[in-house]
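[audit] Reproducing an earlier prediction to check determinism. Same input, same settings, fresh worker. If the tokens differ from the archived copy the diff job will pick it up downstream; this log only records the rerun itself.
[audit] input (380 residues):
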Amino acid sequence: MRSIGILSGSFDPIHFGHIRLADSLARSIPLDEVLLVPLSVPGHRKPAASLAHRRRMMQLATENHPNLIIPDFRFKQESPSVYDIVRAVKNAYRDAAIYYIIGADRLPGMQYWQNAAEIFTLCEFLVCPRPGYNLSQLADFAASYGAKIHLMRFAEALTSAELVRKQLALHNDAPDMLDPAVIHHIARNGLYLPDYETLLKPMLNASRLQHTLSVRQTAVDLAVIHRIPLLKTSVAAMLHDCAKCMPLTALRQIAIKNRLTDDKEILSSAALLHGIVGAYIARERFGIQDEDILNAIANHTIGRSGMSPLELCIFVADAIEPLCRPYAELEEIRALSQVDLRAAALLCFQSTKRHISRTGGHYSIKSQMAMDSLAYQISQ
């Protein structure tokens, strides 16, 4: 007879604790499969990420775990009961032994579950430790109502998903908690961060907002290749053009009032000034305190000597994102960006300088310094 485990929850997001628990139980019972059942809206809290995003993260996290399955059950209600879940599994695996995986903290309320008596005939329970709960006493209590209980004293306690979300809110990629493919999905879609897309809508026109979203995806993909923090990249990309649609008079007013620069060349150009003002807005309006993120926003057009990997990442992504207008060196810069961000950034500067020279414009002194700095670094 096949043995099927059920681990349900919000998986908001799925983390290594979920995977290790499911794997350890699959080996020890043993279980042929463990079904990871994401709940649309668990009773205690509305998930931060949509069900579609959570399912996708679960698929990414379980790609190398063939015994962990994400079933596509369709429940009538957003918060299915234990009975709904067990009945759905039993209908799908009629001849299998069913084991429901729960934490010890859920045992005291078992007798109040919907159709509890029938649940106890349909499945057995694998009970995992929880701090502050006496497993033996709770098992005896549950057994008195007819539940078949197996105490998993060895099972690893789950990392708190709330703790994971707190780390993500701090722009920490949480590599000890999350699969790399999961954090990539989170950063690429801006999950567990402020809803910058909505916050930016009053500030940017539609095309500029689409450019911003495209820069985020491009920058995060580059960050994976070049081992740059993904969430910092995601935030910097979303806010890099937050001042782009402001008129020059408003940009100058903010810059002069707050002493952001006294450079006459920069103060005379919205194209040069919006990055510096954008960094100020990111700090004052959006609460960004990380200096590397702020520098990436401030220098995404002008550049500077000694640009950090994050600054280079945003600078290059801004120039090569899929929606940008084609120009002579675009494909070469895109190819370079996959192997060397400094070389890609240098070609960006050179391409812009050639364009400005052809149109009779004046090339920024600070951009020239940034270009010279990159050329020197690459030559060493």
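[audit] rerun output stored. Observation attached for the diff report: The longest helix spans residues 206-226.
[audit] end
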